[in-house]
Amino acid sequence: MEYGSLKEVLIDYGQHVTPIQLYSDMFRIGEGYIQRSGDSRDVKANPLGYYRNVDDEKGHYRVFTEDNFESVLEEMQGADFSILNGITYFGRRNVQEHASKMFALIFDLDGVTPFSLYSFLDRAKRRVSDFYPYPNYVALSGHGVHLYYLFEEPLSLFPNIKTQLKELKYALIERIWNGDTSTEKKKQFQGINQGFRVIGGKTKEGAAIDTVEAFKIKLTLTAKFEHL
To answer: Is 35 within 8 Å of 150 (Cβ atoms)?
Structure first.
């Protein structure tokens, strides 16, 4: 089977979605999991984005709430560089000690070709030896892909849970990033607090696409993490 582009592989395996569709699914927008603007009666944590323009002396943090999510997202999509992850935080800095809940575990996979992306999805689908879970979403980041694994319920990030999630992420990277799925020999081991380019935001200069695109994978298998 031959594919001409990464997008063609994802169209075969999934459905193109808008940025707000992915983030609404991930953060359960409208279900009361994150705080509304100006609501101090209900203490909840919120997603935190970071962006920076080439002419800025420093970057900026933006708090996402239930009722301003789309407008803040649009602001960040217009920036030269903007990132967001699957975690909510207390306060206005996305540092790990302020992390409250994890809604999704996200991975970066570089050195991806159309064939290696097909291989990655096919291995997950067929559950071959040393299989890994099927992602809920895959984003084209410009030079690679980002893999989104959404939890059925967000996980409270107590210190011991943070440690366990880091160990889980590293174990999955060992399986996800291999000779069949990437041309890069050096694996990138990123912590759970890592940010990823905003869906609909700008990619790196010289990338194959101008903005980050996301696809919802059609066949979602239950992630059997206990086997890892």
So the answer is: no
Structure-block tokens of residue 3:
């594919």
Distance CA(25)–CA(124), nearest Å, equals: 22
Query: Measured between alpha carbons, how far is 108 from 124 in angstroms, rounded to an integer?
Result: 16
**What is the C-alpha to C-alpha distance for residues 18 and 187, in angstroms, rounded to an integer?**
29
Q: Is the pLDDT of residue 227 over 70?
A: no
Distance CA 141, CA 108 (A): 9
Alpha-carbon span 43 to 63, nearest angstrom: 14
Nearest Cα residue to 147 out of 185, 188, 89: 188
Query: What does the alpha-carbon distance between residue 216 and residue 149 come to, in Å, rounded to a whole number?
Result: 11
Q: Give 214 or 227, the one with higher predicted confidence.
A: 214
Contacting residues for 201 by C-beta, under 8 A, at least 6 apart: 76, 77, 79, 82, 211, 212
Radius of gyration of the chain measured on its C-alpha atoms: 17
- The single-letter code of the amino acid at 36 is R
Residue 207 three-state SS = coil
Tokens of 211: 């903005």
Place of tokens 């689908």: 125
What would the pLDDT profile of 149-189 be if each residue is shown by its tens digit? 999 999 999 999 999 999 999 999 998 888 888 888 888 88
As beta bridge partners, residue 108 has 146
Burial 55-82 (b: 16+ CB within 10 A, else e): eeeeeeebbbbbeebeebbeebbebebb
